[in-house]
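Here is one chain, start to finish.
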Amino acid sequence: RHPAAGAFLRIHGFQPAGAYTEMRAPGNLRLPPIVWPYGYQVRSYAEVNDLASLTQAMDESYQFLPGHHSVSQEQMAEWLPDFDQQGLFMVFSEKNRPVGISRVEMSAERTARNGVPTGYIDGPGISSPHRRLDLYRALLLTGIEYLQAQRATWMELESWGDTQAVLRLYQELGFDILRQVITFQTKLR
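Its structure:
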């Protein structure tokens, strides 16, 4: 929180590695059309119902981003009952390979904290070879549309390690930054 902290770290050889960013948008955003790039499609986990594909999507979609670790099929099986499977969106390539994921749900905890129905978006993830802004955009818009159908008054998004270009995209779609924590790194000699 100290305004000079970033400059201090840079002087000592540290560089920004990513950020945790919490964002919020009103539930009544006017949405542009959802356009999926050619060859890509989205399905909910309720339609897919394949734990191996879900694990692969979760593992690869956030790979190489700060704050993410590999997940096992056992971990996914443990977490799955707590997820809204209709709002667990998976992106598939033209070869029907899972290449993206986003978890969206109405959040009882955030609703209680905010005093109004609040939806939660776990930042969209796209696997490294497919990371394109148009995929992030289509996946986020799909989640927003889902939360609007659930009558969310607010939508809160957590982003872990997304690039500045992705964060700007979210802002262009109507999200404001509530708070941000930047992670710095350096190589040890």
